[in-house]
Amino acid sequence: MKKGFVYILANNRPTLYTGVTNNIAKRVFEHKSGRGSMFTKRYAIHKLVYYKYLEDIKSAIIREKQIKDLNRNEKINLIKLMNPSFKDLFVEVRDKFR
């Protein structure tokens, strides 16, 4: 079974986008290059502010749905637990999960 990641991207407002993938470095690079999704491209949402590794993609999909059900403040609090300064974590995942 393939590993999975759930992730949250943000822009400077911050507008948030939650996604799931089995290759986080590749997927975030796609978002940064404007090929990730129309929503992230339209609103310039390309800063990786949260991610979680899960043992399988099914678990990642379940977690993605749970996060999408959170309200905005709950999502921001989740991000702050991992990344209080909302820094871009792309280099970290690129180096860690090639």
Automatic annotation (TrEMBL):
CDD domains: GIY-YIG_unchar_3. Transmembrane segments: none annotated. Residues 2-78 form the GIY-YIG domain. It comes from the Bacteria. InterPro entries: GIY-YIG_endonuc (IPR000305), GIY-YIG_endonuc_sf (IPR035901), UPF0213_domain (IPR050190). Belongs to the UPF0213 family. This is GIY-YIG domain-containing protein.
